[in-house]
Amino acid sequence: MSKKAIAAGVIVVLVVTLVSFFLLAGTIVKFNKESEENQKVTLCKDSVQFRAATTLSVADVEEIKLFPPLCQTIDKKVSGDQAKVQKAIADSMATCWQMFGEGRFKKNIFDTISSFGGDASCFICYTILVDPSTKFKENDLVKPADFQTYLLNTPYRSYTPPDSPKGTPKQIESYHQYIQSGNGPGYVYGFLTDQGIQPGRAYAVMYKAKHTDLGATGALLGVAAGTFAVGSVFTGNILGAIAGAAVAGKTLVEGIKLIITIQTNIDGIYLVDISDPDLRTAFFEGEDHCSYVGDLAGG
């Protein structure tokens, strides 16, 4: 590589970095008008978009992403009746999907240099503690199947599809439809115990990036891209199913390893019960857990 090529590459990197900084400054100025949670969401979303837009080819290096994702895990407590708690968790899942581009980006947003591979990575968007209340007590629960039904049937947004003729009426999308195909393909999977969603328990909402190097054959467990998958994991056995393809008969850790290490060509959202020690071990302590991306706070 010649000195001129290196110098030119460095100059381009500096220019693009400065431009990205000034673009992001507009996001920072808006912060005094937003809640702390919205500030974190906006900063993460905008930085991810800048990162996707500032991929650069320099000399012999194939591609470099110049802008880091400025994301931070959001810790929150929710309370209220079952409907309010389900909405808070579902909204967090949809927001996590929005923060990382809604499945629109063709490559793994966490890749630094694409020629190095593209191992799928995870980011914890939210940790959510469900507080007991008079309307949702400690022994009450939302069964995993009931929350799946909530995601499938509850309206999340109304929108006009892009490139629609003038006067086209707005369409209603459920949470499931939004993540599955609102802008890009995606999937959802719930790793919940038989307690489902219950006061006194904590949950993580996670984004899982696609594997950059896979084509259509890399879909989750062979299911076509965009297929919705939400199931439940019970201590000791995987009882969930992906589009009817049961993965029962595996131990908990083996089953989770099967799901999270299969390289997928689409992005996904996970809901994980982190109050369950076996699920915590499988996701955060095992050798084969998802490769986690640290947040701004160093987590």
Structural features, described:
It is globular and about 50 Å long. Strands 3, 4, 7, 8, 13 and 14 form a six-stranded mixed beta sheet that branches. A two-stranded antiparallel ribbon has the order 1-2. A two-stranded antiparallel sheet has the order 5-6. The chain is α/β, with parallel strands linked by helices and 299 residues long. The protein is 33% helix and 21% strand. The protein has two domains: 1-70, no CATH class; 71-292, no CATH class. It starts with a helix and ends in a 7-residue tail after the last strand. It has seven helices and 14 strands. Helix 1 (3-29) packs antiparallel against helix 2 (36-53), helix 2 (36-53) packs parallel to helix 3 (82-99) and helix 6 (252-261) packs parallel to helix 7 (277-285).
